[in-house]
Design a protein that fits this description.
heterodimer, A: about 375 residues, alpha+beta, Rossmann fold, OB fold (Dihydrolipoamide Acetyltransferase, E2P), 6-stranded mixed β-sheet, 9 helices, about 30% strand, B: about 300 residues, mainly alpha, MetI-like fold, two-stranded antiparallel ribbon, 14 helices, 2 strands, about 0% strand, globular
């Protein structure tokens, strides 16, 4: 997979000297008493694909619309390439937006739609024709210039919308659920096209999506939003492997969360006693939490091993091992999902790849051992 | 064995009956009267009841004579009264339509962009005048516009004018009456069109560099073209043949074809000439009606 991160020279967000391209400073947007966006600060670097990920109503679209100039922030400021954008109307911003509904002009053909923004800027005719043709070629719509939007498929409309928003060479492209209206196969295909297009043009992308898979594939970094705040920002793997809260762990991917109490708190390991699990969890790194504090251990389904025989690690103690009965199995072809019910009543989700065609199948009601590495659980304190 | 109803056996189906009804209606109340008028327009005037001669006559044994009198039509083109009445009607209808559009477009736009709750109230207000008879409403305008009417009294009281303005029985009063009466016919189809508009298109236009007025001119206006045409036709077509409003508000000089038709029919008892005027008016308006139909068909097909 080619993540956009690789298109960037290095990870500029780790470099304190790097100058952010888009700087969002303490932006708040209130609608009456409701804070749609609550004191958000964010730096986006040139050439990034930054994804705002969150459920509907989390404020991600409002934040996007403030960058586009369609909403005025209640407080805070937005800088793009060093210029203060606060109060600049949409038609004067070096920003373009790809709308979720595509918002193609129905009375214009593909060519006229794409040329619209350039005409508006009074670009010379010959240059318009050339840039539109190049852009249509780039999104593989060369033969569709004279079609009207209603004669196009969903995927083609999406490309026209993309071409129209890119042809003006904006400093920042805002994409509102860019793949939301496409079916699954087309979506996967388009994700990679979008990345290669972004790589070619070098435009900074800000994508809003509720689809974590989309965010994971596209993004150089993801900002997870909840209740108007960015709860965590980081690379896809940081977000997935090192979530900083129950919410992020649960929102990005699926996860098993066990509530427990810190019973051993050492600099290089911790041990958590969990009633929910009916056992202890040993984690091979230290955490910063008060002793005896309530914490949550989050373990991804693919990081849990399932076996009918006791795992070898059981000789070293009873940490990180539990028994349970298989309650449900979902066979997905490439992998299977097992729901295993522990004696405590907690149901644990386990995924196992189907590596062999003739594997000895684990079946319903079977008693199994679940175990995991000491490095697998993530401990979060909120 | 399945029973077939006796009606069905002779080819009468439920669907057939349903479709038949509107056709029957049109036949009885549109086509038959039209044919009668057409027939009269080719007749000779006569001092009789009815005041024209039949088209078809028996002359002698076994021979039938059909006599089409084209003089009525020829007469319309020889006397400049009719031509100028036609032209004036078209002028008045055109200006009225334009005025309705200038006043009605912002109203329809405003209603379409208002919140769902206030929208219904506003639409109700547009339709509300229909609850009173047109004649009463036109009479009310006489009370407003006359020399010692409401408007003049208020203006004098405010000190804006010292002498009452002559408004009643002028073209101004006639336009006020026509625009006032026909405005809802323009607002409603235009609203129906604008209401379907995707307002995000305007944001897209602004995003691509349009100021709000440019976005209106380049996006909203062309997209509401069908609504503008439909509404304009609904004003223009009846306004050409309008009789009551010019007669009541326009005074003696308001020479419109509806007025001419009335005079020929009732004052001169020249039914054949009046019928010829009616037929000519119809021929004049048919292209506009067909245009309206095609606009409507396009609108409901959704392709713009």
């Amino acid at each position: 997979m080619t993540n956009a991160g690789e298109a960037l020279k290095a990870a500029p967000w780790t470099d304190p000297a790097a100058r952010p391209y888009v700087r969002i400073e303490r932006i708040t947007k209130s609608f009456g008493d409701f804070k749609a966006v609550d004191d958000v600060s964010l730096n986006i670097y040139q050439g990034e694909i930054f994804c705002l990920l969150g459920a509907s109503g989390c404020g991600k679209t409002t934040l996007l619309r403030m960058l586009g100039g369609f909403e005025t922030p209640t407080s805070g400021r937005i800088f793009i390439d060093g210029e203060d954008m606060t109060g600049v109307p949409p038609y004067e911003r070096p920003v373009n937006m790809m709308f979720q509904s595509y918002a193609l002009f129905p009375h214009m053909n593909v060519e006229q739609n794409v040329a619209f923004g350039l005409k508006q800027d009074r670009v010379p005719k010959a240059e318009i024709a050339e840039r539109v043709a190049t852009m249509l070629e780039l999104v593989k719509l060369g033969g569709f210039a004279k079609r009207k939007p209603h004669q196009l498929s969903g995927g083609q409309k999406q490309r026209v919308a993309l071409a129209r928003s890119l042809v003006k060479r904006p400093k920042l492209l805002l994409l509102d659920e860019p793949l939301g209206a496409l079916d699954k196969k087309l979506r996967e295909h388009t994700q990679f096209e979008l990345i290669s297009l972004q790589d070619k043009l070098g435009v900074t992308f800000l994508v809003v999506t509720h689809d974590q898979e989309e965010a994971m594939t596209l993004a150089s970094r993801i900002g997870v939003m909840d209740h108007g705040e960015i709860v965590q920002a980081g690379t896809p793997s940081e977000i997935y492997e090192f979530p900083n809260s129950k919410f992020v762990a649960d929102f990005v991917g699926t996860v098993n969360i066990f509530e427990g109490k810190l019973i051993e708190d050492e600099p290089e390991h911790v041990r958590i006693g969990s009633e929910e699990l009916g056992g202890t969890i040993y984690v091979s790194h230290g955490i910063s939490a008060a002793p005896e504090a309530i914490v949550w251990a989050a373990i991804r389904p693919e990081k849990i091993f399932m076996s009918t025989a006791p795992p070898q690690s059981i000789d070293q103690g009873t940490d990180n091992v539990v028994r349970g009965a298989v309650q449900d199995i979902a066979y997905l072809g490439d992998l299977s999902i097992y729901l295993v019910k522990l004696p405590t009543g907690k149901v644990v989700r386990v995924t196992q790849p189907n590596t062999s065609r003739h594997a000895e199948a684990i079946s319903w009601e079977q008693q199994v051992y679940l175990s995991w590495d000491a490095s697998s659980p993530v401990v979060v304190t909120r | 064995m399945r029973r077939v109803s006796p009606l069905r056996r002779v080819g009468v189906t439920g669907r057939g009956l349903v479709v038949l009804f509107p056709y029957l209606w049109l036949l009885l109340f549109l086509l038959v009267p039209f044919v009668i008028v057409l027939k009269i327009s080719f007749s000779d005037v006569d001092l009789a009841i009815p005041p024209y001669r039949p088209l078809i006559e028996w002359i002698g044994k076994n021979s039938l004579a059909i006599k089409l009198n084209l003089n009525n039509y020829a007469f319309l083109f020889t006397d400049s009264l009719y031509i100028s009445a036609f032209l004036n009607s078209i002028k008045v209808a055109f200006i009225s339509t334009l005025l309705c559009l200038i006043i009605g477009y912002p109203i329809a736009y405003g209603i379409a962009r208002s919140s769902a709750t206030s929208r219904n109230l506003l639409l109700l207000l547009v339709v509300l005048p229909f609850w009173t008879s047109l004649l009463l409403r036109v009479y009310a305008w006489i009370g407003l516009l006359k020399a010692n009417g409401v408007i003049n009294n208020i203006l004098i009281w405010l000190g804006v004018i010292h002498e009452p303005l002559t408004m009643l029985y002028t073209p101004f009063a006639m336009y006020v009456g026509i625009v006032y009466s026909y405005l809802p016919f323009l607002i409603l189809p235009l609203y129906a069109n604008l209401e379907k508009m995707d307002w995000q298109l305007l944001e897209a236009a602004e995003d691509l560099g349009c100021r709000p007025w440019q976005a209106f001119y380049k996006i909203t206006l062309p997209l509401s073209r069908n609504g503008i045409l439909a509404g304009s036709m609904l004003v223009f077509i009846p306004a050409v043949g309008e009789f009551v409003i010019p007669a009541l508000l326009g005074g003696p000089n308001a020479l419109m074809i509806g007025r001419v038709l009335w005079d020929e029919f009732f004052s001169n008892r020249a039914w054949p000439v009046a019928s010829a005027v009616a037929i000519l008016l119809l021929i004049l308006l048919v292209p506009f009606m067909m245009w309206y139909q095609s606009v409507q068909a396009r609108e409901s097909a959704g392709a713009r």
